[in-house]
Write a structure and sequence with these properties.
heterodimer, A: mainly alpha, 0% strand, elongated, B: Rossmann fold, four-stranded antiparallel beta sheet, globular, disordered C terminus
């Protein structure tokens, strides 16, 4: 566990010293929030849109922005730099468990996500958004988002380990956009067309988005929250296991 | 427990019929085809060969960074395939690319490395100071590595490979790309490290370097060891076999052993097998 912590601290230092890579993860999601609300806000007025639960459309859109911020996966690009520069071999030649090598970076990614998600939520408050589930709900929202950040960073790290290429890893990250748009992104699932509803039902991101949305719009509703956490737990275990296996087999 | 030679010397590195095959884009590649090696504890051992001969692949297998297709390897008495973590505790590794993280400072990097080898925060800080003094980097220790020169990076890489006082230090082309002054500085460091009892296993393309530093060396070509001995023995053997009037250089030994002419080695079109 000490090794994972030491490597996590190093990954955080690395991010702190590269603010130019960190800032877009804050501003691009906020940009999407403003643009999406600007385009569709008037279609869904607060008073006559039941699924908004008395809040405005920005509150409905906030989970998309939060998930986008958690899906930049910059940890994988730093990993490619380590591979290309030889530092990854230095780590592999040390008596460090392969799990610690994976968890160090993922823990740092979770910590970064906590900071960025908190900042986005705070910056969203002036848009008239509130967290209906209260302080506990806010903490759960941060935890669920950070867990998703770990899952997605794990996925990106897998691409980095397999391809050892920054270009391929960057391109792999774009897979998040289809995943994001195949969710009940603009309206709840029951208002989607049938094909979209089916696609979103099979998309794991849907359940994380619905969990986050319920924390923002409703009092603590354990069913959608539980589904969200179950999805990130399963995917998280899968990603860590695949990463560890890939490093063990890395030649 | 390290095994010993017939003369009773402890063995730092032993490889028996070491083989590495892998699949490349152009088909299967036999990078190493049955290497047998023994390095005695306390030696500086040079591992030479032309580009693509299998030097780095052999080193990567010995340092647990690459799987072994067949054969076996023991470092400081530990089987690298059966107990890779045990072997990692006994070895220091500085590979071709100085394996450094340019965003950290020199001190942070060495401290991190020491912590990965089990030192506490305080022990790691003390060890880092010692090693930075050893490689003469104390003044630059708190600057980010991205501002270091090539020579400074190599010395820092050496320092980070020494945090746990390894029994065997593997260096893959430690002076490639360095200016002559930096190369001499690295040689001095290596002599000092070896003087403290660390076995050094060194690959290099600079034959003068091998001549200056190595007690014994092996030449690998096309995945097989083609000659092994002390630099003096190898030169004497060539002089006697060819009936030369003067002692040949190690360059001439290398060219003789690998069947290459100076023209081919220099990249000329003409190719003559020796």
């Amino acid at each position: 566990m000490t090794h994972a912590m030491v490597l996590g601290q190093r990954a955080l230092r690395e991010a702190w010293r590269t603010p130019e890579a960190l800032l877009p993860t804050l501003f691009i999601p906020l940009f999407f929030l403003v643009v999406n609300v600007g385009q569709a806000g008037k279609i869904f007025p607060t008073g006559s849109t039941p699924f908004l639960e008395g809040q405005n459309y920005a509150a409905f859109q906030l989970p998309s922005s939060i998930l986008l911020a958690a899906s930049f996966g910059s940890a994988a690009l730093y990993l490619v730099e380590d591979i290309e520069g030889g530092y990854f071999d230095k780590l592999r030649a040390a008596p460090v468990s392969r799990t610690a090598i994976v968890l160090g970076r993922l823990a740092a990614e979770a910590a970064k996500s906590v900071a960025i998600t908190t900042a986005i939520v705070l910056l969203a408050l002036p848009f008239g958004i509130s967290i209906a589930s209260g302080p506990i709900g806010f903490l759960l929202l941060i935890l669920l988002t950070a867990s998703w950040a770990v899952v997605f960073a794990g996925f990106m790290q897998l691409i980095a380990l397999k391809t050892r290429s920054a270009a391929a890893t960057n391109s792999g990250g774009l897979v998040f956009f289809p995943l994001l748009f195949l969710t009940p992104n603009f309206v709840p699932r029951d208002l989607l067309t049938r094909p979209m509803e089916i696609a979103s039902t099979y998309n794991p991101v849907t359940y994380i988005m619905e969990g986050l949305r319920s924390l923002i719009l409703e009092d603590l509703a354990w069913a959608p929250i539980g589904r969200g956490f179950a999805v990130v737990a399963v995917l998280g275990v899968l990603m860590v296991a695949l990463n560890v296996r890939t490093i063990r087999r890395y030649d | 427990m390290a095994r010993r030679t017939l003369a009773g010397m402890a063995l730092a590195v032993e490889a028996e019929q070491l083989v590495k095959h892998y699949s490349g884009r152009g088909g299967a590649v036999e990078a190493v085809r049955g290497v047998d090696l023994t390095v005695e504890a306390g030696e500086v051992f040079g591992f030479l060969g032309p580009n693509g001969a299998g030097k780095s692949t052999t080193v990567r297998m010995l340092t647990t960074l690459m799987s072994i297709t067949s054969g076996s390897a023991r470092v400081a008495g530990i089987d690298v395939a059966a107990d890779p973590d045990g072997a990692r505790r006994k070895i220091g590794v500085a590979l071709q690319e100085a394996g450094l993280d340019a965003r950290q400072t020199g001190r942070e990097l060495v401290i991190l490395q020491a912590r990965l080898f089990g030192s506490s925060r305080t022990q790691a800080a003390g060890r880092a100071q010692e090693l930075l003094e050893l490689v003469d980097l104390v003044e630059a220790a708190d600057r980010r590595i991205k501002g270091y020169s090539g020579g400074m990076k190599r010395r820092l890489d050496l320092a980070s490979a020494l945090v746990h006082e390894p029994e065997v230090l593997f260096l893959d082309e430690p002076t490639t790309g360095l200016d002559p002054a930096s190369r001499l500085t690295v040689w001095e460091e290596l002599r000092r490290i070896n003087g403290r009892g660390t076995t050094i296993f060194l690959t290099t393309q600079y034959l003068e370097e091998a001549d200056q530093l190595c007690d014994r060396l092996a030449i690998i070509d096309d995945g097989l060891i083609v000659r092994e001995g002390t630099p003096a023995d190898l030169k004497t053997e060539l002089r006697e076999r060819r009936g030369l009037a003067t002692e040949p250089t190690l360059d001439e030994v290398f060219l003789d052993v690998t069947g290459r002419t100076r023209e081919r080695t220099a990249g000329e079109v003409q190719e003559v097998q020796g």
